[in-house]
Amino acid sequence: MENILKPARYINSEWNAAHKEWDSAALKVALVFPDIYEIGMSHLGTKILYGILNREKGVVCERVFAPWLDMEKKLRAEGKKLSSLESSRELKDFDIVGFSLQHEMNYADALNALELGGLALYSKERGDNGPIVIAGGPCAFNPEPLADFIDAFVIGEAEESILEIVNAVKDRGSKSDILKKLAEIDGVYVPDLSGSRLGLRVQPQCPLEQYSSSGHESASQEQSREDENASLHGHCKIKKRVVKDLDKSFFPTDIIVPYIQIVHDRIGIEIMRGCPHACKFCQARKIFHPIRIRSVKRIMEIAEESVKSTGYEEISLLSLSSGDYPHIEELAGKLEERFKPMGVKISLPSLRTGTFEEHEGMATLRRAGLTFAPEAGSERLRHSLNKKISDAEIIEKSRTALKSGWRKVKLYFMIGLPGETPEDLDAIARLAGQIKNANLSVSPFIPKPRSDFEREGMDGLETLKEKQRRLFSAFKSHPSAKNIRTDFHSAEMARVEAVLARGDRSVGGAILKAQANGARLQAWTENFNYTLWDKAFQETGIDPEKYLKKKEDAEILPWGFIE
Ligand code: SF4
Q1: Looking at the domain 7-234, which fold is it?
Q2: Is-above-0.85 flag for pTM?
Q3: Residues near ligand 1 with C-beta < 6 Å?
């Protein structure tokens, strides 16, 4: 490990890591997080699946993370393979290799993990003896860009389907037999068999396959596009799996405690899944719909067991919009009463502006940064997004938060939103100027699959940059806004992310090309290389505009078959 940055990313044997008997296990699963240890170890979904699988008799589940650049160089130089943390096994030794796809900018890292692990990248090139490669997570809601590489996608909440998947793979047999069994499971999409499980004949009879295999529609397809659309929406659906009752679903309390600091280095308890709001740009709301509440009683039990088994001194209450949790005061009060004497802090990272109140109970929550997401500068634009918060509310709640001890307020905005005018950009500077100690984050709007804006177009690169410049000058010319710290998210990265998010199967070729040309850990600003992606798109005949332009109502969406 000489000259390797943060060797603790790779050394294994952390507190609570599962080390099960390898040889006697009937099924071995590698959970691969295609980003580095500190990010993957903070991901709740991975902790849930690790816990469920390792509690099963006869199942071994181990973790694999993407190596940082230095470690990859070392592995390649020494001819070594990417392997699991717990028992240093190569990916080929597992029966299932399961990817968590949280961010499109990790797609090249998923392919790189397969390559570094010694597996063939294309699904059709992996035969009967290798692992079945599965992927899930929010990005699986448009599986097509990775459909040539992944054998099966898990759509929706994997804790519902994971044991059914284990059973389908456990008895092995040929790869095609396993895929057939997987295709029978609700919420599982097997690209090779997409027609058969839906009662249609295998490709090319399924209209989805006709679209997906080429990424382009033929003249005759175009002619009957509307019929096909109806067929897709009528019969060719894969329905996401949903946990019905959070209180009854598994929640890990003996999470692994790392040796190095990770992004969310604390106990994270999910108090609610789903969101009661309906912001039109929001993908998460649809993916995690409907709303489910974990009871105060169950949260207290989880907190108790988690503190005991980890020794962490901080509990974070997680959900898309924690202020909307209906029993927040009761919960905060009970947590304070039980854990304050033990020196355990409670934090609540995700609050909407509209739900932030200085409730008595909430006074106990940790006074770190508070994040509000007005998204748009003007009330007019905000209302058109279904974000019904007035300027006055944002200003008042931010000031209240700062007065009552929160150290800073971070405000999230987007530029390039549908219906945006130049005045809406100026309004961002005006609004932020009225809040002292605000930090701003400004990101380009990406019309993501499953959001209400999924058919909207995305601004071109030059337009976005012009908007960033206008906003920058608006800050400089506004007396109280000129010292505000603003992070502008890269327009180039947003453009690549949008192509990957909205892509069809032919975009997979560009991802593969980018990976082959050295795209690594592209979600990291310091590693992101736009030229490399631009070249990959050009070399594989991908025109980003095709994916970024507005989509007509009759146009078939690559992800239209996922419900
Ligand atoms: S943006 Fe936040 S508040 Fe709005 S729907 Fe999405 S999760 Fe809910």
Answers
A1: Rossmann fold (3.40.50)
A2: yes
A3: 275, 277-279, 282, 284-285, 320-321, 352
